Amino acid sequence: MRAEKLSVTKVFFIMCAILLLLSTSMPCIIYILTRNVLALYCGLIYGVLAAGCMTAFLVFVRRKLTMFSDALCRQLDDMMSSDQTPPQYTEGENLFYKIQHRLSRLYEVLRESKSSIAKERADLQELISDISHQVKTPIANLKMLDATLLEQTVPPEKQREFLLAIDSQLDKLEFLIQAMIKTSRLEAGVIALEPKPQAVYDTLAAALGGILLNAEQKKITVLVDCPETAIAAHDRKWTTEALFNILDNAVKYTPEGGKIRVAVASWEMYVKIDISDTGIGIPEQHQGTIFKRFYREDSVHDAPGIGIGLYLAREIITRQGGFIRIASEVGTGSTFSVFLPHS
Predict the structure, then answer these.
(1) What tens digit of pLDDT does each residue of 235-251 get?
(2) Which of the four, 32, 203, 208, 266, has the lowest number of CB atoms within 10 Å?
(3) Is the dihedral of CA 75, 76, 78, 82 positive or negative?
(4) Dist CA 102 CA 83 (whole Å)
């Protein structure tokens, strides 16, 4: 009989049979050799006791194996079909405990993986919902303008006005798509940030270059105080994107003739970049939610934008070991403080 076909029960009975045979045959052999009845009785008693001890040991081992296999099967069933807490085993230095302990660790890893997958699925559903909500308005506007141009006779002046409106809606869609591409690539890890020690001055200058024209059109004064010696560990391209998003928000929500002040200071562990404006300010109850994706306050819905800039800025900064802090007062302005770790 091949060993792999033998069950534990069969092995148990075979071992018991062998022990019984040995316990009876050995005293008989001794009696034949010695013709001593006392030796025969002593041999029989010793054989029975030895066989009994071995049988008890085999029964104990079989019971332990049965209990372990039952517990193993229950735990595997839980791992496959439920979120129950894995059973706790009494610690001990034996083979069963080692297997059970590693199985419990595997159970926890699988639960964490399942929880992570569920969270990613929920985030994906939320993202799809957000995108559909954001594209709904420009697409509806485009359909309305297109239907008007197709179904009605529109004067040339009005046609130009409609075409400019269509161009504006297309720009909004393009901006939304580009922002979503950046966000999704960053969240999915397709883009790996590579922070390295470099001057904050050049990064800040690149970010400021993107908002100076709009600031000039609104007659906003931009004041910058940044020492050229300030060094922080950051990815220049993506940190420029984050700082630009904060500066762009400052320009959008600062009235004409206002001021934007940028100040850089080196702390013990971080380089601090303060971006202050004299804009409309943010209510205290909303300061914890402005970094959510697509979040916009009701009071600024008429302003350009889709509410993804601050979300993207926070993702970029935190993924480099930094953080963003905000202080704001309605009617006075806001200060966004960006902390980048030292090299």
Answers:
(1) 998 899 899 989 988 99
(2) 32
(3) positive
(4) 18
